[in-house]
């Protein structure tokens, strides 16, 4: 096969032969042909070089796009970190990460009204086409919807008990008057029954001693024993001798299972600091939509860009009325606290935090909607009012039609005294509440007050002439005090790629 050079020499020989007798003509033609061949060769070289540059530029472009994708992945890792709240608008400031041959810069902007992030990632690669040229740049934009976490499976059976945490006194929990406890009861310390108080259902767990002060006091009956009674220390009935372990009928304690083997259950703890920083609405998550006069969530929280847990100091001194005469509404991407004064419906979704105290005192019957938790640095008072998940036609809280796994309000209070007696965190006066209560101090049901639902406090004071019972709880609001790691809002997979 002839090469290009051989073909050129052959062509020249033929031209010299053809124009051998025309010496003056051959030279210009030869020079012209050489010029043409040189130009052709130069074109081939230039084309080959251009193709190589185009290929290198295309490869750099693909690498820059891959860097942009890496930036999106880095942003998603930040939003998906369990300890992060994906609805924190300050989570994604601009960050630059170096890679071999290039860098990626990524950042995000949260639309709080739609709970959607727009993430922008810019990949830069060294330009291979020559020195002094601008880097190869690819920009990628994605949208990331965020789903608030409103509920979670129950991981702590303590929320199916009335639970008294105090220890160290002869009577760490006292049940008096004509109270009949018909729901599981767990006492960390010593339990005393007085007047005509009885326990008609179980399980009953007392880590310390059980004292039945009066002849009318008892646990179960011979004809209707409770399912379980676990008494860790002694039993004493009326004026009889103290027995250890509890002997059953001589101690007026009747249970199908009676022993001193206390179950290894641990009460949940409220993560006050985490919810102070992440409650929505709350000190660092103000109303995105607002009407009327919602609560002041904090007075001195400082910059949302730099949340400060030391500002959880009860700075809101005015007690907020949750159910006033006028409606109000506060909505965020992660929750809601609203009151409809016409329909008498309180809506609590997500976890709300007020760095102060709250009260419900409007008379009559109110209902609530949603799966939610209300955290208070201060105290809670419910007075002269029924606050129900479900109300019947007579204005009473309806337990038979209440499913706490779909509608449950949890109120957690960390304060003591003030609008309630010293030592109390939560007090009910001539009131009924259908939901769950958690107090650092005591939870007190005064006079004819009652709680239909679990209560966890230093001690629990039950009112008069009350039978307590509530349905089994399996699904709880995400902000409910728990033993498991708190889960905030989490991102969905990215959508709407562009760039």
Radius of gyration: 38 Å
Decide which structural class fits the backbone.
Answer: alpha/beta
Shape: elongated
Number of strands: 40
What portion of residues belong to β-strands? 25-35%
Total of helices: 3
| Main sheet specs | 17 strands, mixed
Average pLDDT: 88
Oligomer: single chain
Helix content: 10-25%
Q: Uncertain runs with pLDDT below 50, 5 residues or more?
A: 1-5, 15-19, 21-31, 33-52
Distance from first to last alpha carbon? 50 Å
Molecular structure report:
By secondary structure, the chain is of the alpha/beta class. The protein is built from 3 helices and 40 strands. It has a 17-stranded mixed sheet that branches. Strands 1, 2, 3, 4, 39 and 40 form a 6-stranded antiparallel sheet that branches. A hairpin with a 4-residue loop joins strand 16 and strand 17. Helix 1 runs antiparallel to helix 2. Residues 1-5, 15-19, 21-31 and 33-52 have low confidence and may be disordered.
């Amino acid at each position: 096969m002839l090469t290009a050079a051989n073909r050129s020499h052959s062509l020249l020989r033929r031209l010299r032969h053809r124009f051998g007798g025309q010496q003056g003509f051959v030279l210009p033609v030869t020079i012209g042909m050489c010029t043409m061949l040189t130009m052709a060769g130069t074109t081939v070289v230039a084309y080959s070089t251009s193709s190589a540059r185009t290929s290198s530029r295309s490869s750099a472009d693909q690498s820059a796009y891959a860097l942009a994708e890496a930036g999106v992945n880095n942003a998603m890792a930040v939003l998906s970190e369990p300890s992060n709240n994906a609805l924190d608008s300050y989570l994604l400031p601009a960050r630059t990460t170096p890679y071999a041959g290039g860098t990626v810069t990524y950042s995000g902007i949260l639309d709080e009204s739609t709970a959607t992030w727009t993430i922008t990632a810019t990949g830069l690669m060294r330009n291979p086409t020559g020195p002094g040229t601008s880097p190869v740049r690819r920009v990628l934009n994605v949208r990331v919807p965020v789903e608030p976490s409103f509920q979670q499976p129950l991981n702590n059976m303590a929320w199916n008990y009335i639970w008294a945490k105090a220890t160290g006194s002869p009577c760490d929990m006292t049940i008096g008057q004509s109270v009949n406890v018909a729901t599981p009861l767990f006492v960390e310390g010593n339990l005393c029954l007085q007047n005509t108080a009885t326990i008609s259902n179980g399980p009953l767990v007392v880590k310390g001693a059980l004292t039945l002060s009066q002849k009318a006091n008892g646990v179960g009956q011979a004809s209707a024993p409770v399912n379980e009674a676990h008494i860790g220390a002694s039993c004493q009935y009326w004026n009889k001798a103290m027995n250890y372990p509890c002997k059953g009928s001589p101690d007026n304690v009747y249970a199908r299972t009676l022993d001193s083997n206390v179950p290894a259950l641990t009460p949940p703890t409220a993560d006050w600091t985490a919810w102070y920083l992440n409650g929505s609405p709350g000190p660092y998550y103000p109303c995105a939509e607002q009407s009327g006069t919602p609560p002041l969530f904090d007075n001195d929280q400082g910059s949302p860009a730099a949340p400060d847990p030391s500002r959880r100091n009860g700075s809101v001194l005015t007690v907020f009325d949750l159910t006033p005469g006028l409606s109000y509404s506060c909505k965020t991407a992660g929750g809601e606290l609203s009151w409809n004064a016409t329909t008498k419906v309180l809506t609590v979704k997500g976890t709300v935090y007020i760095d102060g105290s709250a009260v419900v005192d409007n008379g009559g019957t109110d209902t609530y909607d949603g799966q939610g938790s209300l955290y208070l640095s201060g105290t809670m008072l419910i007075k002269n009012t029924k606050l129900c998940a479900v109300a019947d036609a007579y204005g009473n809280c309806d337990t038979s039609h209440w499913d706490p796994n779909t509608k449950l309000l949890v109120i957690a209070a960390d304060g003591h005294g003030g609008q309630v007696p010293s030592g109390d965190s939560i007090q009910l006066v001539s009131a009924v509440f259908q939901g769950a209560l958690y107090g650092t101090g005591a939870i007190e049901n005064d006079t004819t007050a009652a709680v239909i639902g679990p209560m966890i406090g230093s001690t629990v004071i039950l009112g008069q002439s009350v039978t307590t019972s509530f349905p089994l709880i399996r699904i709880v609001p995400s902000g409910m005090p728990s033993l498991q790691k708190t889960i905030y809002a989490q991102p969905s997979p990215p959508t709407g790629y562009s760039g």
